[in-house]
Amino acid sequence: MSEETAQNISDGDRRSFEERVFARFDALDSSVRDLDSNMRDIDARLQKLGTRAYDTKPIWEQALKEIVETRRELSKRLDRIEAIAHETHADLRDAEDRIGKLESEPTQ
Q1: Are 23 and 15 in contact (CB under 8 A)?
Q2: Which of 31, 37, 53, 94 is 20 to 30 Å apart from 10, CA to CA?
Q3: What DSSP designation does 105 have?
Q4: Residues 91/98, Cβ–Cβ less than 8 Å
Q5: Following DSSP, what letter does each residue of 1-28 receive, concatenated?
Q6: What is the mean pLDDT of the chain?
Q7: Residues 19, 21, 23, 24: what is their CA dihedral angle, to the nearest 10 degrees?
Q8: Residue 8: phi, psi to the nearest 5?
Q9: How much is the pTM?
């Protein structure tokens, strides 16, 4: 840097060297505070997202519980339908036997 440029810089800023250094430190400190604040905001947002992920767990547990209950209910209903089908089949056999007896009896 030439002496003339150095003198222009000095003439342009009449503050003392210490004042300029402290001003730079203040600016850096402000930047660091802003960065720290932004990092805290990001951390808070990440924690909130993590909490939301855990919030869905009860929903899935409830859905699974309902699926299991539905399966059990369906199984019970199918058992009832099967019992009714067997009962109907037995009644049909009895009816067929009765019809067969009636048909085999001599008519007068």
Answers
A1: yes
A2: 31
A3: S
A4: no
A5: --HHHHHHHHHH--S-HHHHHHHHHHHH
A6: 84
A7: 170
A8: -65, -40
A9: 0.42
| 34-87 residue pLDDT tens | 888 888 888 888 888 877 767 777 888 899 999 999 999 999 999 999 999 999
Looking at this protein, which amino acid is placed at residue 86?
H
Among positive and negative, which fits the CA dihedral 26, 27, 32, 34? positive
d(CA 14, CA 92): 114
pLDDT recorded at residue 13: 61
Amino acid at 100: G
Backbone φ/ψ region at 54: left (φ over 0), alpha (ψ -120 to 50), beta: alpha
- Whole-number pLDDT of residue 53: 67
User: How far apart are alpha carbons 102 and 54 in whole angstroms?
Assistant: 72
